[in-house]
Structure formats: C-alpha cells, structure tokens
Amino acid sequence: TAWSTFFEDTELREKIELDVERTYPEHSFFSSKYVQKHLVDLLFIYAKQHPLISYQQGMNELLAVVFLVNTVQSTLLLHKQEDITTATATATATVGESISNDSQTQSSTQSQSQSQLQLQSQTQTQTQTQTQSQSQSQLQSQQTQLSTQTQIQSPESLWEIVQDYRFIDHDTYWLFETIMNSMSKYYYNNVNNANLNATASSSSSSSSSSSSSSNTEQSKAPNKTRSRMESSTLPPITVRCKNIQSQYLRQMDPGLSQHLNSLNIEPQLYMLRWIRLFFSREFHPRDVCVVWDSIFSTYCEHRYIIVKSFNNNNNNNNNNNNKETSGNTDGLEELITANKVNEMEKQLNDHFKEVLRQQLDFRMVDYTCCAMLLFIRQHLINSDQQQCLSRVMKYPPLEDVADIVRQAYTIKKVAEKPLMKRNKKEEELRKKERDKKAKEKARTKGKAKGDDDSDTELTIESDNDEQVNSSNNNNNNNNNNSNDNDNGNSDNQRHGNNEHVSTYNFSDRWNQISRTFTHAVNTYAEDVRKTWLGDLSDQTNFHRRLQFEHALGEKMQEILDKIQATIKQRKLNEYNQSSEDQQEKEKEKETENEKEGEEEQKNKQVSHDILSPSQGDPLMNALLMEGDSPSTAPLTFSSSSSSSSTANTNANANVDKSIAELKLVKDALLGNLDESMIETWLDFKPVPLDVGSQYPNPDLNNVRPLHGPGGLPPPMSSKSAKNNASSKHPKVHQSTSDLLFPPQSTSV
Amino acid sequence: MAEEKINDNGYDHLIRITLIGDNNVGKASILKRFARNEWDAKPVGTSVAELEIKTVKVFDKTIRLHMWSIQKSTSNILNSYLRGDAIGIVYDVTNRDSFKNLHIWFTEVERYARDDAIIVLIGNKCDLVEDRQVSLNEALPYAKLHNISHIETSAKTGAGMIDLFGLFLENSVKTLQQKQNKFKNTINVEVEKQNRELPSTHAKWSCI
C-alpha cells in the first residue's frame, strides 16, 4: 500500500542519512549539509531504482569519492574561467537576467562547496586565493554558463560541456551506477541469508526462493551438511577473495600465499572491505584517486578484449548462419562505439553473458589487493596470525601509493598473459584484412576513452599497442619475432607505468565516461518528486522523455568519438611532416642512451614494416605511431590552425561541424529546442522501457517494474487514490524526511 | 578460537570476542573505549569489520583479546566470526528498533555460534537518560528468556565496561581451563593433578 511504501522509504532514508553522516567525518567537505543532502538523495534514488540491492553500507563511501572528484573537477573549471570572464563580463549583465532562479540557487550552493573544496584539493588546485565573496562566485558561475554557450570553438569548451557544474549530481549518479553494475553482486549476497530474509522486503522474492532451497537442503541433512551447505552457497565475494589469495598471490609469491593459508586467515575478512570500497578506507583520499585511476583505465581495456573475442565468436558462427551475425560484424567494422558495444551485449547468449560479467569485474581490484599484500610481505611473513590480522585490518600508511599501482600492473601482466595469448591465436585464424580493420577500429574505441589526456593514458596505449604490434608481427613474420617484440613491449610498459603514476590527472578520464545520461537522471529525480506530489498525470510522457535523453546522450558520445577520430587523423598528418625530424632526434637519443634508442629503432622498423602494405590508411598509421612516439607534442586546436596542410583544414572543418552538432545536443538537453525537430535528426523511436535489463542479477523475472505495483512511491493507480493521498498529506514537502506527522490510519 | 600457548607470542590464551548488532548502536565505540580508552563523538561508520587487540592479565595468565565488531550487512559472510569464544549482542537503549531487531541476531547466533560460547546482551548508550526508550524492566526478562547475562554500558562515559569484559574474561577463561582439563585427562592424568583449582568468585584481572 501507499502508506507502507511511504514508511519503508522514510526508514530507508533515515538509514542512509545515518551512514552518510558518518562518511569521512574528518573531512570538512563531507560534513557540510549541502553535500550530505545530495549524497542521501543519490543513494536513495539508487536504492529505489534497484530494489533488489536497495541500500547497503559501504555504498556511501564509494559515492562520496565519486562525488568529491566530480565536484573538484567542475570547480577547477570555474577557476579556469576567470581569465575569460573578464572579456565577457559586459555580455554577462544582459544574460544574467535571463538565467532562471533555479540556477542561481544552485550556484550559491556551489560556491559553498567551492570554498570547502579549496581546503580539500590543494594538491589539485592551482594556487588560488580563496577570498571570493559569495556574490562574486555567483556571478562567475553565471559567466561560465554564458561562455559554454558562446565559446564553443575552443577545445576547452568541450570540457565545459562535459564538466558543467550543474550536472555534478547526474555525472556522479551515472558513474556510481556504472560501478555498481559490476559491484552490486558483492553487496547483494547478504539477502540470501534465510534469517535476515524475515525482515527483508517482499520484493526480494528471488532471495526467498534461494533461501527456501537452502532450507530444504538443511532439513534433509540437518547436522553434518551445515558446513557443506555453506560452501556450496558461497557468496561471490568470498569466492573472489579466495581466488585472490590462493590464485593471484600464489602466482606472484607462493610463500606468502602459503603462509597466509597456513595461518588460517580468511581472505574475505580484510579483502571484503578492500574490494567493496575500492580501497577508499585504506589510503589517503588523494592516493585513493590514483588507485581508482588504474582500476578504471583497465576496465575499458577489458571491455575491449571481450568485444574482440565476441567478434571472433561471431565469425565462427558465421560459417553456420551467415545472415544473422553478418550484420553484427559489419557494424563492428564501421565503428565500435559504446552504443554498438551495448547492442552487442544485448545479443550475447547466456553463456557468453556470464563470461562477460566475470570479465567486467574490475580485475584491477584483484591485482591491487595482491599488490597490497606483497607490499607488506615483510611484515606478514614473519608474524603470527594475530599480528598478520591486525596488519591487514589496519593497513599501514604509505609514502607513495605509486609503488602499489606499479606492482599491480606487473601482476596484471603476469595474470593476463594466457588471456592475451589466446586472443592472438584466435586472431591468427581470421583473415588478415578483417583482422587489421577490426583492430584498428577497436583501437579507436579504446582510445576514445582517453584522448584528451593523452599523456596520462600511456598505460592503456602501451597495452593496446602490445596487442596490435605483436599480432601484426605474427601475421607478417610468422611468430618468429616474439622475443624482439617482448623487449620492446616491456620497455613500453615500463615507460607507460612511470608516466601513468606520475600524473594524477585521473578525473578527466572518468568524466569521459560520464558524459551521457546526466540530464536523464535529473529528470528522473524531478519526476519522482512529481509523482510524490501527484503532478505527473501522464507517465508515458516520462518514459518518452527518459528515452529521448538517452538517445541524445548516445548521439553526443558518437559525436565526441568522431571528433577524436579526426584528432587522431591530424596527429598522423603532423607526424608525417615531422617524421624526418624525429628520426634525427632519435639518433641524438642513441648517443645518450644506447639501449633505449635501439629498442625504439626496432619498434620503428617493425611499425614501418607493417605500415608499408597499408600506407593509404591514415588511422592505421596513427595507431602505430602513437606507441612509438609518445614524445610528440600534445595536440591543440591552436597549433593545428597554424599548420597549412589541406588535410588539417579538412580536419578542422570536421571538428567544427561536430562541435556545432554537439552544441545542438546540448541545447536539446537543456530544452531550448523544439524536440520534434531533433527527434528526426536522432532517428528517435520510443520503446517501452525495460528496467530489469539494467540490473545484472541473474533472476530477472522478479525485478519490480519501475512503474508497476509498488514501484514508485506511492503507487498512483487512480485519481481517488491521489485525492486520498493528498488529503492525508496536508502539506507538500520536497523531501520525505520532512514528513514527520504520524498516519491517522493504515490503509490496506 | 582459543589457542594454547605454543611459542613466545607474549600471551597464554587468545580469546576472540565478537560484537554484533544493528547499525549505529556503538559496537566499535565500546571496543575502542575498552581497548584504547578513547571515544569519538562522530565515529567513522564501520565498514565490513573492525579489529581491536588488547592484552590483559587474568590470574597469572596473559590473555590476548581479539575484539571484532561486525557490520550488519556482512554478518553472513563473516559468520565464522560468530564461532569465537564470546559474543556480545549490542542494542541501543535510545533506539527501540535496535531492541526489536534483537531476535534476528539471536537466530544468527543460535545458528552459527559454538555451544560453549559466552553470550551477553549489551545495552549501550545508557548515559543518555532522557532519550531512553528501552528500560531495564524490558531488557532483563528478555535476557532471562534467552538465558544470557545482561549488562548496560556507555562507551561515552566508560560505565559498565569493566563489568562487561570481566564477564567475558571470567567465563571464557573458565571454559578454557575446563577444556584444558578434559584434554589433559585423556592424555595424561598426572598433569591434571597439578592444575590449579578454579577460583569460584570474582577473578582478579588487570589490564597490562
């Protein structure tokens, strides 16, 4: 009933509030009421959208870090704006009037968090005196809004769109949801417990079924099988922890693994916290960001590997049924965007889906866990059980977290070698041309995640290069080159690692993931509120709007990918011009450092060998070049405009066009344009929304539909119900926590 | 698990105490007060589990305490920790819900705990007299029903701490020594004779 859901929601909210208050109490940023309210809202919405997981302790910690990073990033942008704003100050006066009240209130709160952030993010902010009055920063943020609309032509303006401070909440939510898609099963497990099930909500019918099965098992063999039953129904988190300690760690350091096992230390005891919270409790927040950086960068890479192997699968199937799968591979060859990946994921069969889920599990977390254990090896190996326990439960403070990240990368390399090899073999079986094309496209996709901060992305690049180079090599030279290749790769890898850990510019990458769906979340939150108030009469409208915004987000991503492709093309052109100069430079390097020079030369030769058959293909060249010449200056729009080659002007035109499109999308998101016009441009067709597919739990049949009975609080079946509800609620409140009055009667 | 002294670990026995209960009832605070004599007005919420270690002297034996506070949502993963020597089920006297939820924890304990484990019902935050929602008159019969001891504590003021951990220590040492006797009965009768008599009244124990 409406009342029971209402009480459940209030209870849930109180529970969340309790935990949010205790999140990072030592940081002033999180003790502000503004931040706390936003965190509670986000967690509440997540809990309502994913009723099977609901809210679990620990989520607040994850969300807090995501939120902090997003806020820092957006605030940094505001500071960058100061230079530009002096120029556009006159224009602001006119536009400032037209800005709605809503944004003004938001900007004032923004300035609050801004001042608090200054204390937090001294490592990241440039030296800025924080003596701005509130009105000043308010004006400033208005100017930011203005400049996002006017100065679209510079590359920074892309960031303004992505980093718009108004969408911090939406960015945060989307990132959080993406993380939770992989992580939720580690939070979910406790509902399986038969005892706790009594208090669990009725929505978790899947858990009750599983618990009943365990009960029957128990009744069959009451005493002896208790331990066996536990082992058979091990929650995924336990499996994973054990896997880390007994597999990865044994691979790296058999002695330590043996030692821990012999001491009977259960890995889930300490690792559960590491994994669930992504180490956010183990390190200083600044270090946490570095670790997360490595986790998310490899996440994309894994995704890419999976898609590739899926493509192989499809090719195998192609021999049998041509028609069905050919469409897929053709689509892949056109361009692998994230959309395509998603489409393909939907078409995966069950078995492959399972594999996918395992693969997308933030493997880097496992490696980092392992690296952390290795790091304190000296402490562990010489101590008894209780010393070990207290050591891992209270991880010692670190001087430089980079050591651990570096270690994690080496573990990753060792652990994933078999995977890579398998991939190579599969690729060799395929046709050469298709192979090259697919790789090249996939590469653009892998690159798409980190083009803007190409300097920090070197780790991913080098990893991918490893694949591309080596497999191409195999094609050309029939497997004999593997030794040379390994040398070059290891050099690449080492170099990439150093680059990676030395730059802490992690949040750029996140925000590249987060650029879509922001507004959609906002509308959802609003509509939830409206449903509470009874304003939303037509729910199909809501559906449509949500999907419309999803489509817009996808379009936006497409455009951004296109831009990145053009940038790559231009990079290639510049390279062709300056390649001779670079060779000279390398000779100079040789005198300085013989070994490195040789290796680079080798790489160069290899890449030229590969280049020769496909000279005409610019993208391919670009891909191969980047790994070899990380020293090329980072590309900026201004430098390209000065260069006179025709290809560059073409590229410029392309970028301008894409940016114009981007602007259109942005306007559409903000609701400034006629929707019907955009819909034709997008090819937008509303489809009935299926919430269940978003949730990774295997038992999809029992997921509550978003608008089904008991879905949104409170259910609005008829007008009379609405009237009843409104009569019971004499006042209309924004947040449920304000509703403190007791019910007169419980409706059934 | 209770362990005999094998090497020079600096202690004779290891006793594992686990505190369970609803969120925000003050499990970790109790441990912190006892182990380090500290108290936080705004504690960090426990994620998954927390461990405090303290060494005490009971009779002439050095005893190391491993004290765990287990988070609610992870109790089933960490259920092996309910097989320790002592379990404290904590509720908040200013929070009626935490008292109502006790039955969940009792089923949990009945399912996983050892037969000889010492179980104590702990009502925390007893210093907040005005906000009190659960009276002693309710709690005592409840504890009697389950046949366990009941103690009210306050992590803030430190009230009841000595009683609580004295109870834990006394009983667990008793069971330890009983076990020892049994064990030695089967191995060697002579050693048993050398064993001390168990003191029946309040044990003298002190923190190191």
From TrEMBL, chain A:
UniProt xrefs under Gene3D superfamilies: putative rabgap domain of human tbc1 domain family member 14 like domains, Ypt/Rab-GAP domain of gyp1p, domain 3
Ranges of compositional bias, category Low complexity: 103-117, 198-214, 467-491, 629-650, 717-727
Keywords: GTPase activation
Biased composition, class Acidic residues, residue ranges: 452-466
An annotated Gene Ontology molecular function: GTPase activator activity
SMART domains, A to Z: TBC
InterPro entries tied to this protein: Rab-GAP-TBC_dom, Rab-GAP_TBC_sf
Domain Rab-GAP TBC: 1-299
Presence of the UniProt keyword Nucleus in the record: no
Sequence ranges of Basic and acidic residues compositional bias: 422-451, 582-607
The UniProt record lists the keyword Cytoplasm: no
Compositionally biased spans, kind Polar residues: 215-232, 733-748
Region (Disordered) location: 98-117, 198-232, 422-502, 571-650, 691-748
Signal peptide range: none
PANTHER family hit by this protein: TBC1 DOMAIN FAMILY MEMBER 5, TBC1 DOMAIN FAMILY MEMBER GTPASE-ACTIVATING PROTEIN
Name of the protein this chain belongs to: RabGAP/TBC domain-containing protein
Organism: Reticulomyxa filosa
From TrEMBL, chain B:
Top-level taxon of the source organism: Eukaryota
PROSITE patterns reported in the protein's UniProt record: RAB, RAS
GO molecular function, one term: GTPase activity
Gene3D superfamilies attached to this UniProt entry: P-loop containing nucleotide triphosphate hydrolases
Keyword Ribonucleoprotein included in the entry's annotation: no
Record SUPFAM superfamilies: P-loop containing nucleoside triphosphate hydrolases (SSF52540)
UniProt keyword terms in alphabetical order: Nucleotide-binding
InterPro entries listed in its UniProt record: P-loop_NTPase, Small_GTP-bd, Small_GTPase
Protein's UniProt name: Small GTPase Rab1A
